[in-house]
Amino acid sequence: MTHERIRKVIEGNGPRPNLEDYDAARRTFTWSEAARALDGLPSGRGIHIAHEAVDRHADGAAGARVALRCLGADGGVRDVTYAQLRAQTNRFANVLGALGVSPGDRVFALLGRVPALYVAALGALKHGDVFCPLFSAFGPEPIRARLALGEARVLVTTEALYRKKVAGLVAGLPDLRHVLLVDAREDPPEAPGVRALGPWMERASEAWTIAPTAIEAPALLHFTSGTTGRPKGALHVHGAVVAHHATARLALDFKPDDVFWCTADPGWVTGTSYGIVAPLTHGLTCIVDEGEFDAERWYGVLQDQRVTNWYTAPTAVRMLMRAGDALPRRFDLSRLRFVASVGEPLNPEAVVWSAAALGRPIHDNWWQTETGGIMVANFAAMDIKPGSMGKPLPGVEAAIVRRTDDGGVTVVDAVDTDGELALRPGWPSMFRAYLHEDERYRRCFAGGYYLSGDLVRRDADGYYWFVGRGDDVIKTSGHLVGPFEVESALLEHPAVAEAGVIGKPDPVAMETVKAFVSLKPGFVASEALALELIGFARKRLGAVVAPREVAFLDALPRTRSGKIMRRLLKARELGLPEGDTSSLEAGG
Ligand code: ATP
Ligand code: MG
Q1: Residue 353 CB partners (closer than 8 Å, separation 6+)
Q2: Quick one: which of 4, 50, 215, 567 has the most CB atoms within 10 Å?
Q3: Whose alpha carbon is nearest atom 15 of ligand 1?
Q4: Which residues, at least 6 apart from 60, have a Cβ–Cβ distance to it below 8 Å?
Q5: Is the pLDDT reported for residue 398 higher than 60?
Q6: How far is Cα 179 from Cα 107, in angstroms, rounded to an integer?
Q7: According to the model, what pLDDT value does residue 588 have?
């Protein structure tokens, strides 16, 4: 299963990577130095995400640069310059003021990837509110649960989404005072507090001064993906912008004139930290694609928009792989300089595939809603070991630990030994609370570390390898098996499109490994194919680790952000209750 390293040779032409010497950068990097790359509010009045993302780029000639290039679902293209974004976000801040919203209130958005979402996010921050994005494909119950948990004061949405999903919820949400419809012409007469936003925006002033803002002032509320249970609300502060900016420079290799496309929806932390904040703080042009995944169209976007840096997810990469190798050859992807992915383990096969099919290897990186920014990454200048998530960022002190019975931790120093990934608090984008769950927040910390809940190992060269989520790891015949390793092996078989692996209780082995796979077009499920896959995995992994059973599914249950929900595979296998499925993708 080991692939050759992908060697990086930095050539004389082409821009040099921002991080050229990893060890030197680790030695010299400090967060206070990183903060100096930002502006700070005028006359030393603190730091504010929207000032760094918008206002500082909006004056003079720089203001004419395109901040958002919005590709509509209808094929239309709409550009928003930095100067326009400043004017629009100022207006929105004034609207919130005119409505009597208090700074510190929570403003939610339930919107597709349209300009109004970006205006609402940054405008709410300017007003001093906490912004929380919701994924627009959520059904009424996940929307209700998050609005209630987050004590939403304002919801920004569209007329259609309001009628279809929100109207029936309002009576049960006493904290919710205002629903603002970005596309309605008039206020719906039957619903007090529900307003057409347009006329308010037109009346509002384009002038706004951001109030002094402490580094620790709350800014963003993000719900976790709900892969392992009920989603948690993670709260982030304005000072996080230092990490958004610095990590994007180091791990996404942003350069001043780059065109950046983050395919994650702002309903997830990736789509906000790196789909809104980080690229705008660098003054880049962001591609905002309203449409859904379509392999041909996506390659078209990369080509036509001359995307230089692209940040996507393993599930999307596997869908591109499924669409075949001939397709990307029809497109000119020569502008593409740096590709990264996050959210799930990136199987080695996908890295090798991308190097050949896209002409650029995908750089896996690791982080969580809780960490607010990239923590472990494959950097542009570093050799890639396919299947590894890379090395900790400069400024991020990572360790591998085991929890002890007395509530502490011991650090695992040995190479190639599994343990929990732990991070030393101190990076600016660390979450400051789980909303209404103080005890749970406290339990995330022990021995001076934040404990991630993910198992990893580190090799002799300092590369980190994802083993599995703590909850997903399988104990079989005295061995610990990470589902990712088994899934990666299965994904090397030409018939397999997706794989999800669980442990099934067994009286002798404790658990046995069971795999669920979906097939690529042209392959048909059969007993013979199941046996072939088991044999294939055995050759690569050995009999202990290889699945003992393979079952076929048309599609694996996934979160709306594309993560395989192994806990659902397991619950279904064992006939147990499915638990919280509010994040489950439709049809999963
Ligand atoms: P929940 O916490 O509600 O169960 P979640 O953990 O999936 O959901 P996120 O914060 O969106 O919510 O995802 C972070 C998790 O995603 C990580 O803890 C890790 O398990 C997984 N992950 C992210 N990036 C990678 C990666 N590069 N390799 C492997 N796993 C990754
Ligand atoms: Mg999590």
Answers
A1: 317, 321, 325
A2: 50
A3: 368
A4: none
A5: yes
A6: 10
A7: 65
- Same domain (yes/no): 484, 447: no
Q: Return the pLDDT at 229.
A: 80
Out of 367, 388, 580, give the residue to mutate to test ligand 1, the one with the largest number of ligand atoms within 8 Å of its CB. Answer: 367
What CATH number should be reported for the domain holding residue 317?
Answer: 3.40.50.12780
* 399-428 pLDDT tens trace: 999 999 999 999 998 999 999 999 999 999
Span 177-190, mean pLDDT?
94
Give the domain-ending residue among 427, 455, 483. Answer: 455
Ligand 1 within 6 A of CB of 226: yes
Ligand 1 atom nearest the C-alpha of 563 is: 7
pLDDT over 90 (residue 366): yes
Q: What is the pLDDT of residue 65?
A: 98
Distance (Å, whole) CA 73 – CA 292: 8
For residue 483, report the distance from its CA to the centre of ligand 1, in Å. Answer: 14
Could you tell me the distance, in angstroms and rounded to a whole number, from the CA of residue 307 to the centre of ligand 2? 30
Say if ligand 1 is within 6 A of residue 387 CB.
no
Determine contact, residues 96/127, Cβ cutoff 8 Å: yes
Q: Are residues 125 and 197 in the same domain?
A: yes
For tokens 């029809």, name the residue. 330
Residue 235 and residue 192 in contact, taking contact as beta carbons nearer than 8 Å: no
Domain count, the chain: 2
**Distance from residue 454's CA to the centre of ligand 2 (Å):** 9
| Centroid of ligand 2 to alpha carbon of 232 (angstroms) | 8
Report which bound ligand comes closest to the CA of 469. Answer: 1
488 C-alpha to center of ligand 1: Å? 17
What ligand is nearest to the CA atom of residue 223?
Answer: 1
Percent of the chain beyond pLDDT 70?
Answer: 99
Q: Using a 6 Å cutoff on CB, does residue 454 contact ligand 1?
A: yes
Whole-angstrom distance, CA of residue 290 vs CA of residue 458: 39
The confidence score (pLDDT) of residue 2 equals 64
Q: What is the pTM for the complete model shown? A: 0.94
**pLDDT tens digits along 538-581:** 998 888 889 999 999 999 999 988 899 999 999 999 999 998 88
Query: Taking the chain, what is the end-to-end CA distance rounded to the nearest angstrom?
Result: 30
Mean pLDDT of the residues in the chain = 95
Same domain flag for 58 and 101: yes
Nearest ligand to the C-alpha atom of residue 222: 1
408 C-alpha to ligand 2 centroid (Å): 21
Range of the domain at 557: 474-574
Does any ligand 1 atom lie closer than 6 A to the CB of residue 469? Answer: yes
Distance CA 112, CA 277 (A): 17
**Residue 369 beta carbon below 6 angstroms from any ligand 1 atom:** yes
Angle at 139 between CA 49 and CA 293, to 5 degrees: 70
C-beta of 345 in contact with ligand 1 (< 6 A): yes
